[in-house]
Each structure stands twice: as C-alpha cells, then as structure tokens.
Write a structure and sequence with these properties.
The complex is a heterodimer of chains A (340) and B (290). Chain A is an alpha/beta fold and 340 residues long. In chain A, 27% of the residues lie in helices and 26% in strands. Chain A has two domains: 198 residues, HUPs (Rossmann fold, 3-Layer(aba) Sandwich), CATH 3.40.50; 122 residues, TPP-binding domain (Rossmann fold, 3-Layer(aba) Sandwich), CATH 3.40.50. Chain A is built from nine helices and 16 strands. In chain B, helix 2 links the parallel strand 4 and strand 5. The mean pLDDT of chain B is 91. The chains are: A alpha/beta (340), B alpha/beta (290). At the A-B interface, helix 3, helix 4, strand 5, strand 7 and strand 8 of A face helix 3, helix 4, strand 7, strand 8 and strand 9 of B.
Chain lengths: 340, 290
C-alpha cells in the first residue's frame, strides 16, 4: 500500500529497458523520501535474468507475471494484469517509460482507475500543495514537471485526490544509478491464467521485424544538429558533411523533422531523444525549451544562428552569429587545416 | 451487407510550431489568440486512413467528432471538404478545463451515439503531445486499441490489418472490429480538398455560427438541410457532469513558469574567417574535437 511502482518493460533481447532502470533509480529516491517501498512489475513470458538485474536497484518487491501470451507486448493482457495489481496494491505513485509500450498502456490504466496521468515529465519531485479554491492542504504530492505549449512554459502538474499518481518519462531523462546497498527483493508471482481471458487476446501479431535503430544519437560524442532555420533538406547535407569530418552524428529539432528535413529517429528533445555529448553544434536552432530539455546537459554547446537573441545562445559556450550555410564550410576547411 | 461506420476524432490545435513574436504577452504568458488554429497534423493522417478505409470497403461512411469552441467547426468543414460525410461538434462550457481523462469521457459518450465499427484518431496532438486521449477513449468504450498505426494493409467488414511504427522497427497486427486506431504522423498524408465538395459545403454552419452570420441562411438551410453541423452539449450526451471539465480532471496545474534562461558565460563570434578559425582552434586545443 502507498508504495512507488515502476512498470519494467522487457526489450526484444529479454532484458529490462534502460528507461525502466532509470525509473527504478528515480523511484528509489522518491520512495526513500516518502518513507515507502519501491516495487517493480515485470510482465513477460519468462522473467529469468531480468529479476537479478532489477534487484541492483534497491527494489523491495517484484511482481512477476509470466505467460507465453505476455511476450511480445500486447495492450490488453498487460493492461489486465497491471489493473489487477494496482487495484490490489493501491500504489501511491506509478511510473512508466514514455515508449510506444508505456504510452500505449499507461493511459488505458489511468482511464480504468480514473486517476491522473502526466506524459513526458522532465522532472519528478515531492512537495506540498494547497488547493486554491478549497484551501485544502496536501502533503507529499508528486510534482510532475513538463514543458507545455510549444515549450513556452514549464508546467507543474499534481494529482491531489486520485491514486496512483501516474507519470511517463522519456528514456535518458532520469539518471541510471544502481543502489549502493544491494538487497534481496520479495518476488510475488501473479496467477495469470485466471486474469487473461480469450477476449484479451483478440489482437494478433502477424509479423515483427526489429530493425535496430539506424541512428544512435545517445552514443555519439559529437552531435551536429539542425533546426527549421536550416531551410531545406538539401541544406541539411552540410550537417552530414561536418559530421563526417568531425566524426559525429546528425540530429534535428522537432520543427526540422516535421518539415521533412530529417528522419524522426534523429529528433532531439522532449519528444525525441535526450543526449549528453561532449560537443553539440546547434545550427539554425532557436532553442525552444522542449529542444533544450534534450540537449542542455551537453558538455560543450556551439550555436550558429543569424538571430543574436535566439534563446539557444543563452546556454551556448560559443554563439556564432551568422549564416550557417557560410559558416559550416569554413569550419570544415579550418578543421582540416589545423587537425593535421 | 451491413454499412460500416468509420469515425475520426480530430482536434483543432494552436500551431505551436510557428510561435511568432506576438505569441507571448508582455507578462510572459502565452497569447493563444495570436496563434493560428490548425487541424492537428496526426489527425489529418487519421482522416486519410479513414477515407482510404472507405475506399476499400465501398459500403462505408466516415464521420468526424471534434470537441472545442465554436470556431472548431472549421475542423468539421475541412473534413467534409476532404471526403467525410458528416461531423459533430462537442461544445459546452461544461467541457472547459478538461484534462485527457475528462476529454476522453466526453468523447466516449459522443461515440456511443454514433456506434462506429472503427475509430481513427491521431496518435497525439501538437499542443500537448500526451498521446493519451486515444487509449483512454478506447478503454471507456471497452474497444481494443491499436496505437502507432502507420499503414492500413487490409480491411473487411470483420477485421483490420495494420502496420505499427515502433521505436526500433515495425509490427503488423490484425484486430477484429470494433477497434480504435491511433495514427502515427509518419502515415500517408491526407488527400487534398475536393473542389466539388468545397462548393457544396462551404456554407455548412453550426447553429451558433449561424447566429453570428449577418446574412439570413434560413432559406438555404431549408433547401439544403445537410449544411447544418450538429452541436452536441453535455446534456445531449447524457454525460455525468462530475466527470466533465475541471471536476472530472484528476490532474491539476499547480503552477506555470515561463521559461527564463540562465545566461551562461559565452563567447560571441561572427561568421568571419578569423572568428571561425579561432573557434576551431579552441575546440582542437581543448581536445573536444580531433
């Protein structure tokens, strides 16, 4: 009762997804602060090694549901099991990765339990709250913090009256930190045969091909990123040229992706990937907060922009004011001249 | 053969991708009035998938539901111009302040009046990016859901086959009807307006819009009753008021901070040869590159 729950997503290679481990790390801190337990939920065909990994994160209880129908993920059987666990255990907080699984599952759960859910939080904190109208005071609520409205505002959302307080968080937003003191978790097995009914299995998966992500932004030490200000897909080629020379990867803002300048998997920001490279070169990017949320932890930031007042310049180590189409070829030329 | 009812859930959104200088008020808050209102991009993909479903089935009709203020009737006209048969505007002060849960409750009540076989909606709306209303509406209706759909592969009066676009690949699923499908932005773009339909429906109005018109539409509407866009209030949905608007929304906005950037000490350079050379030398010296 009143504990912090993390839904642990099982990946294609039967490991726990990084985002879930990050949430366990954050969940442990929230549980410590509230003086409650941290509980994990694993739903798959055979949990196996994943249970060992989860115990690196100081989890008190692991709820395990194993059934051959539960892997790969399908909405309805996973929904049934989580709904059952949450009704029995009445969690205080429930966290899900903001993945295609978490964003499919969490809203359905929130709807059936009639509780609040905040998507894509960039920060989670514990704090008090006074209702403006009733004056009622609430202690130790989960502050669900996220940019909103095109990134012009940062909203703090609370769910005063409903439980669990549910949130989804993108991969890479929270830090992955194992517990310093390892402890053995209590394993609670769930009897899936009673829960899963034939009507939960009506959607059939005919085919899956898992294409490994072509682009791995998270592993890149140098990222050359382009925004809407690049003007065209053709101009993006310059970024690839610079990336080739420096040994980096090309990324893009949401606006550039929406405009068709780059593929979706290159998107950095709140609804894309969060990166922390040693060098981030922002080209033609004004710097909406949703984009900055995905890159402001970069060790060094260079912005190239015609607008001296662009918000990105405020977090840049170097702000180069000028035409990116003119500057990038010069950067390539001077790099070649001096790197030898 | 039974006629298949296809329903699209669409939203009018402020165009947050084109936030201009006047989009922020002097006090730093967002000036919603200054933002152009557009058809949510993912919902346009959903409309296209619905229209292609109609093309495949032949014996099918496409309806549209949108929720919002009077001006959201524009979404219905736009949908009809592109090929939908009819639309319904959910509009009521009682809906104001709804979070995704209260929104999905109101929409589900409206969907029950139409009783569709397939629902298509966008994966998410650009003003919130939550992707929650689709799955929540499906839960309220006890419909199975297929999210992240990118392509409609097969369809008959009993089942639908869809390709889903996930982070690391694609998945093909088959689902029996009825079903709710959320459509990914990478799906096929929506077909253009049909000129004939634009001519036929350009005077389509809701009752509220008619009150604001200076011209008298009575005769026109008597002759062409199909021009009337129906407005549905909370009462007409027989909705439980407790579940609507602010009281039906478990999430509360505690506070809103306008974005203020902490100024970092930075070097400001120009595009001159000298400056760019200095930059590259700095980076090489500090071993950030090379």
């Amino acid at each position: 009762m009143k504990n912090v729950f993390v839904y642990c997503e099982v990946t294609e290679d039967k490991t726990i997804a990084d985002v879930s481990l990050e949430l366990l790390s954050k969940g442990r801190k929230l549980a410590e602060q509230l003086g409650v337990k941290l509980e994990a939920v694993v739903i798959t065909d055979e949990a196996g090694e994943t249970l060992t990994r989860i115990q690196d994160f100081g989890v008190d209880v692991i709820h395990v549901a194993e059934n051959k129908e539960l892997f790969p993920y399908r909405t309805l059987p996973h929904f049934k099991i989580i709904h059952h666990i949450f009704q029995e255990e009445k969690p205080e907080i429930a966290l899900f990765g903001a993945t295609s699984v978490g964003r499919d599952l969490a809203p359905r759960i929130a709807s059936s339990l009639r509780c609040g859910l905040t998507a894509d939080c960039t920060s989670l904190e514990i704090g008090n709250h006074t209702d403006n109208k009733t004056g009622k005071e609430y202690k130790n609520l989960l502050y669900q913090i996220r940019p909103a409205f095109g990134g012009n505002i940062i909203a703090t959302i609370v769910n005063p009256d409903t439980r669990p307080q549910m949130a989804t968080v993108r991969e890479g937003v929270m830090k992955l930190e194992e517990a310093t003191e390892k402890k053995k978790a209590t394993i609670k097995k769930i009897d899936t045969t009673k829960l899963i009914q034939p009507e939960d299995l009506i959607i059939k998966i005919i085919d899956r091909h898992i294409e490994a992500q072509k682009v791995n932004l998270k592993a890149a030490g140098i990222i050359i990123s382009g925004g809407y200000g690049m003007g065209s897909k053709e101009n993006f080629q310059l970024l690839y040229d610079l990336a080739n020379v420096l040994g980096g990867e090309v990324a893009a803002t949401r606006a550039a992706v929406d405009a068709g300048f780059a593929e979706h998997e290159r998107q950095v920001g709140q609804t894309g990937v969060t990166v922390r490279p040693k060098l981030y070169i922002a080209c033609g990017i004004s710097g909406a907060v949703q984009h900055r949320a995905g890159m402001d932890q970069s060790a060094k930031i260079i912005s190239i922009n015609t607008d001296a007042d662009a918000p990105i310049n405020a977090i840049a180590d170097y702000a180069v004011i000028g035409d990116v189409l003119e500057i990038i070829p010069k950067m390539i030329a001077y790099y070649k001249k001096h790197s030898k | 053969m039974k006629k298949i009812k296809i329903l699209v859930l669409a939203k009018q959104v402020p165009d947050t991708r084109n936030v201009g200088k006047d989009a922020m008020k002097a006090d730093g808050t967002v000036n919603r009035a200054a933002l152009p209102a557009i058809y949510n991009p993912d919902d346009l993909c959903a409309l296209e998938m619905a229209l292609s479903a109609k093309d495949i089935l032949k014996n099918a009709e496409v309806y549209v539901i949108t929720m919002g203020p009077t001006r959201a009737a524009e979404i219905i006209r736009e949908s009809i111009y592109r090929g939908a048969e009819e639309g319904f505007l959910l509009t009521d002060r009682k809906f104001a302040g709804s979070d995704t849960l209260a929104t999905s409750y109101a929409i589900a009540k409206a969907v029950e009046k139409i009783n569709p076989d397939i629902i298509f909606c966008g994966l998410q709306a650009i003003d919130g990016d939550t992707a929650q209303v689709g799955p929540q509406t499906a839960e309220k209706l006890h419909f199975p859901q297929v999210t992240y759909a990118e392509e409609l592969l097969e369809l008959d009066s009993t089942k639908i086959v869809l390709k889903r676009r996930l982070e690391r690949g694609v998945e093909t699923v088959t689902a029996p009807l009825p079903v709710l499908v959320t459509v990914h932005g990478s799906a096929k773009a929506c077909r253009a307006r049909n000129a004939k339909r634009v001519m036929q429906y350009k005077h389509a109005r809701t009752a509220t819009e008619l009150q604001e018109e200076t011209r008298d539409y009575t005769e026109l509407f008597n002759k062409r009753p199909y021009l009337k866009i129906e407005e549905w209030s909370a009462d007409m949905l027989q909705a439980n008021e407790e579940y609507l608007g602010l009281s039906g929304s478990p999430t509360k906005v505690k506070n809103i901070d306008n974005v203020i950037l902490a100024q970092k000490e930075n070097k400001v350079l120009t595009a001159s040869d000298q400056d760019v050379e200095e930059l590259m030398l700095d980076l090489l010296k500090s071993r950030v590159i090379g």
